[in-house]
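Quick one, probably user error.
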């Protein structure tokens, strides 16, 4: 495959994202008023509750079976490493450049979470169908590649809707708390608070020794209850994140894909409940267009209100498209040498390109759900997706040269 053909193949999905984003931005302008903030917010909830779970479930249940889940065990590890290294270098960027507190978790999320869904769904089949593809017969390559991509998307959804979801949710909670703290009406009266502390200190000085001992015991009891309360709070929050609709859909997709008789109930021409699966698939098809339109709509505000420095944008691009791809080459070649991955070069290509993807578009959904850093997210997406057109092309060439 020539460099020009490869450039066209790798750039096509990125250009599609940018074109639909521009349409969303135009629809959100005062001229059309088709995507005002409230409309984007409600559309995001629909994407979160219906479209994304449908896409994840349909992709997994249809293309992944039990044997493949076992033989492809390294892919979840590989995706976990993309999150680990991305978050680590994102943390370094945050420590060095010190962005606004409510943006810090967004930087970690953008650096660690790759678009493991629609980008790969377009790139892999397109590369397979190109003349001179290094991955063999076009039909076989496309079928197998779709299985790899669907598995990647489902596993990625689990990571995104647990770790990344936790980051954005925490950022939203902290951001709202900071806004409440800045509101004078909600702040405690400092003078009254100081007087109260003074009275407490005076009373403590006059108290006798038994009373002091009882007070210490009471404080220790309260502290112990507080610690247990924090533990249960963390477990409750983790449970909520694990029970989010996309994660539940991913788990169900694994079950229906792995268990043959369950798969036969929903999937296939003779399946008795195939109309349900077709309906789920139809819902899932709306995920990518809706997310991309919302992303474009948020961009209209982001260009004016986003508090992002040029150095921060450049640092994120360097992490995503320079550091992580080089780490990915080392990880995949090392795993291949140890015998952890199948010999199929297409499988190894998918593993490598997972380190090179632009940010997961679901991050935009999360920022909209929790009303935090929406504008900054849109601006980061604009520049990272523009850079991805060049980065994906260049690194795809390098990966195929290494593997073939």
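Nope, works fine. Designed sequence:
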């Amino acid at each position: 495959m020539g460099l020009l053909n490869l450039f066209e193949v790798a750039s096509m999905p990125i250009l599609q994202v940018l074109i639909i984003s521009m349409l969303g931005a135009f629809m959100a302008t005062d001229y059309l008023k088709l995507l005002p903030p409230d409309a984007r917010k409600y559309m995001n909830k629909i994407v979160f509750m219906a479209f994304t779970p449908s896409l994840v479930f349909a992709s997994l249940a249809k293309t992944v079976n039990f044997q493949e889940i076992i033989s492809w065990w390294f892919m979840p590890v590989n995706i976990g490493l993309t999150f680990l290294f991305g978050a680590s270098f994102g943390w370094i960027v945050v420590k060095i450049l010190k962005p606004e507190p409510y943006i810090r978790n967004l930087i970690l999320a953008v650096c660690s979470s790759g678009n493991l869904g629609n980008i790969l769904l377009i790139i892999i089949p397109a590369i397979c169908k190109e003349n001179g593809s290094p991955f063999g017969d076009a039909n076989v390559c496309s079928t197998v590649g779709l299985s790899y991509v669907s598995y990647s998307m489902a596993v990625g959804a689990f990571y995104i809707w647990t770790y990344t979801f936790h980051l954005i949710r925490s950022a939203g909670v902290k951001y709202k708390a900071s806004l409440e703290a800045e509101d004078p009406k909600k702040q405690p009266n400092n003078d009254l608070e100081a007087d109260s502390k003074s009275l407490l200190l005076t009373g403590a000085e006059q108290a006798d020794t038994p009373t002091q001992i009882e007070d210490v015991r009471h404080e220790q009891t309260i502290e112990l209850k507080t610690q247990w309360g924090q533990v249960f709070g963390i477990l409750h929050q983790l449970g909520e994140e694990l029970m989010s609709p996309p994660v539940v859909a991913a788990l169900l997709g694994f079950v229906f894909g792995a268990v043959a008789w369950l798969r036969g109930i929903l999937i296939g021409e003779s399946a008795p409940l195939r109309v349900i699966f077709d309906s789920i698939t139809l819902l899932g098809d709306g995920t990518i267009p809706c997310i991309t339109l919302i992303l474009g709509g948020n961009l209209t505000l982001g260009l004016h209100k986003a508090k992002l420095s040029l150095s921060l944008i450049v640092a994120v691009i360097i992490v995503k498209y320079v550091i992580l791809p080089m780490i990915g080459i080392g990880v995949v070649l090392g795993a291949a040498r140890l015998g952890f991955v199948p010999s199929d070069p297409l499988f190894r290509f998918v593993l490598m390109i997972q380190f090179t993807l632009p940010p997961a578009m679901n991050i935009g959904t999360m920022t909209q759900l929790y009303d935090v850093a929406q504008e900054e997210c849109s601006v980061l997406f604009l520049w990272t997706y523009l850079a991805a057109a060049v980065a994906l092309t260049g690194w795809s060439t390098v990966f195929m040269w290494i593997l073939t």
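Residues 186-207 have pLDDT under 50 and may be disordered.
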